[in-house]
Give the backbone structure.
Amino acid sequence: MILVVGGAGYIGSHAVKMLLDQDFEVVVLDSLSTGHKQAVDPRATFVKGDLGDENDLAKVFATYPIQAVMHFAANSLVGESVIDPLKYYQNNVAATLTLLATMLKHGVKKFIFSSTAAVYGIPSVEIIDEGLPVQPINPYGNSKLMVEKILHDFSRAYQLEYVVLRYFNAAGAHRSGEIGEDHQPETHLIPLVLQHLLGLREKISVFGTDYETPDGTCIRDYIHVMDLADAHILALEALLKDQLKNETFNLGNGQGYSVKEVIETCERVTARKAVIEYTARRAGDPARLVASSGKIEQKLDWKPKYRLEEIIKSAWGWHENHPQGYQK
């Protein structure tokens, strides 16, 4: 049985559905502070509980025969992390320590960690690989890197076996249209554009048009949430079969898309025209952030299956049928 912490969230709920489709038994632990109960596949066992609560965790591990843990339960807003770093260190680091301690107490030593390419900070290279120095520039990136270092130390001291997966911009929705992206507040470009095209937002703001990129706007790595879920399950299977351990992988499409490309593709998919406001650059926005996934391709034969148009088509299917997210 697999414990998915944060399984009611965006990426976690997609991983849960894929795990179930591949005949894993799944327990979801989620506080529902940002997740949605409606996103949890009814085939999974759902437990409402807090990652940082020793009693909540102890009950789960005492009740279910947990073999491995997937951890998606992090706060992930960069701006918020700068304003309220305490929240990020408490939830992303201290609560994760509580989870790891409970795992060890119950003899569970296989762990899949959802990390972020924000650990690289502002890289000076066009394509980011795992050998690049890690230099996070905000508390969110710091908190994820701290956990990565903790996992390294725990592997040496307690024989914990882990896989860390670093990625940037998850996007898209499940092909069934039953689950998708619903954040409050929403900060991701693709859902913001699609919400605008649904008439829920007045305009789209583009921050900076003078970057050293082909069209002057920032380039980012967008990856389908189902590709991310697939990578997590491949890593889990390899861990369970003792085929690898203590690895760190980037997950990316290897090319990246500009802000203008994303907006134009959204317009093409929806056959609607966006109202765009071009404004000044935001502080700390690098021109290009694109991850190489060559290492995981070599080790686990993983490749992203979906490109930008397919990502946006799936996202549009979700947003068009759920304009208010999981509320309706």
Summary: The mean pLDDT is 93.
